[in-house]
Design goal:
Blueprint (H helix, E strand, L loop, with lengths): L2 H12 L3 H20 L4 E3 L3 E8 L2 E4 L6 E4 L2 E8 L1 H7 L3
Antiparallel strand pairs: 1-2, 2-5, 3-4
Helix pairs in contact: 1-2
């Protein structure tokens, strides 16, 4: 499912205009993004949580040339699936 499909599903499920559903989805994603930028954790009970993980810099190799390169420290978003979602997905 992509963002536009999510918007369509919300509009259909809640009997909303597509424009209103799009505003809702964009607001949720924007507020989650802002929280992560502030370094906060975003938890959606029963689904999972998002947080920012910090990675130290390191020396790596260019796979084409074998040249040693320095990789800068970075921060990346990380998602951890919640127990309930994990159990629902794992139904065989």
């Amino acid at each position: 499912m992509n963002k536009s499909q999510l918007i369509e599903a919300l509009a259909k499920e809640e009997n909303l205009a597509l424009k209103k559903a799009e505003e809702i989805v964009n607001t949720v994603f924007r507020d989650m993004e802002k929280a992560l930028i502030r370094g906060e954790r975003v938890e959606i009970r029963g689904f999972g949580s998002f947080k920012i993980k910090k990675y130290d810099g390191y020396q790596g190799r260019n796979p084409k040339t074998g040249e040693i390169i320095n990789v800068s420290p970075k921060k990346l978003p990380f998602f951890k699936v919640g127990k309930e979602l994990k159990e629902r997905v794992d139904i065989v």
